[in-house]
Amino acid sequence: KNTSFRSSPLYSIHSTAYRHTNAPPAQDDASSSNTNTTNQLRKRLDVAIVGAPNAGKSQLLNSLVGSKVAAVSRKRHTTRSGILGARTLDNTQIVFIDTPGFLHHKMGVKEGVRKLLGEASSEMDSADYTLLVVDAARKLDVDMERTLVTLMFLALRSRGRNELGFRAGEKNPTAAENDPLNKFAVVMNKVDLVNPKEKLLLSVSHVGSMAESVIRQLLHQRRNPAKVRLGDLVDTVIKNHLDEEGFENIHEDDIEMFTAVAPQFLFTSAITKDDEGVDNVLGLLLHRATPSKNWIIDAESATGMSPIEQVEEIIREKIYRCLHREVPHSVQQQNRMFRLIEPKRKESDPVDEEKNKILRIHQDLVVKTKSHQRLVLGSGGKTLERIRSTAVRDLEDAFGCVVDLNMNVRVSKLNQDVTLETDIEGAKTFTI
Q1: pLDDT along the chain (432 residues), means of 10
Q2: Is pTM, for the whole model, over 0.90?
Q3: Could you tell me whether strands 92-98 and 83-89 are parallel, antiparallel, or unpaired per DSSP bridges?
Q4: How far apart are CA 369 and CA 110, in angstroms?
Q5: Rounded distance between C-alpha atoms, residue 408 and residue 425, angstroms
Q6: How far apart are CA 412 and CA 93, in angstroms?
Q7: Which whole-number Å values give the CA distances from 227 to 60, 378, 408, in the listed order?
Q8: Cβ-Cβ contacts under 8 Å for 150 (sequence gap 6 or more)
Q9: What residue spans of 26-171 are helical by DSSP H?
Q10: CA–CA separation, 267 and 93 (whole Å)
């Protein structure tokens, strides 16, 4: 029954939101910002980007930031840890937290990624706002419904960043007192892959009815406080959301809030350059930023990652693109050398500092078994060479100089995770 959402008084609000956000569009970048902006005038918004695996979260993050800061691959669970990216426009900094794909618990345990499940929810708790990314081209099965509903509950229960001893929204004079639940937006991604477009409207209607039901449940909990398991709340939404219409089960004093907190819907195609949908998302986030005294990332930087972490992320993307099944998830990276070399230049040589620089990187790919080692190497070392050569192109774009990348595959004697080290065997960091 997909008609219930259309008869809801909120449907017109949703339809307006996904045609065009009311937030102002993003304009000037950090390069044109006023460097004399004082701390008192600064604003900030910490944003968690969440969704099911392979929904396009990392690609959306890269589009919003304007550079590659998160591994992009068709494989599920490419993102293994929260990665900070940022976009600074004038006096406002948007900090993005890219999380691993969140799966309903039973489904996640089946795939062997139990540790990743809690990470998305923990990142969301300290976020001021959440972007729930939905693959518009994918069918919403029961597991997907449970995943999306769970993320909606977690987004609405988030407390925001902790700055100077209080949460971001607690002392924000510009925040509406009746708008405490408006904490997430739905980004329908990969819309260019949906045909016919009527299917997109049905998906929006489906996700919108679940969002309304989630809000109903939370408003009911506020009126009737009781200890209820999150799983039970999710079950209730999945069971009832298609049968609920209008202001059904809403207390008359909560109708205004119920209408105000309906999430906005935005449409993106992260694979399309100059996508207007990405600008709409960025404009919405800038509109929601709150006063802040702390910017955690330099205004001229797109990421809080160190150069070595950027190297690791770029190479990891190529590992996921070139390897299959469980193999890429078991590969650990260990940095052996990271050194910038500036050859001596003769007086007759043309002055071009960037071309003269060579960034020498040696990295080990550590696997747990010899069979995995053979798979990573490939026949005659062709797979490893494909990983290396494709990574070099992105590394040279990222660091603006020639990159000499040497890679080796070895089996871990300890058969355990190997962390990326920066202080062994001559590894050296430098400022870009």
Answers
A1: 38 34 49 48 90 82 74 46 72 80 48 47 81 92 88 88 60 42 90 91 94 91 87 91 86 88 87 77 93 76 71 86 77 90 68 72 92 91 94 86 94 58 36 27
A2: no
A3: antiparallel
A4: 22
A5: 15
A6: 41
A7: 36, 54, 53
A8: 102, 104, 230, 234
A9: 57-65, 105-110, 114-125, 142-156
A10: 23
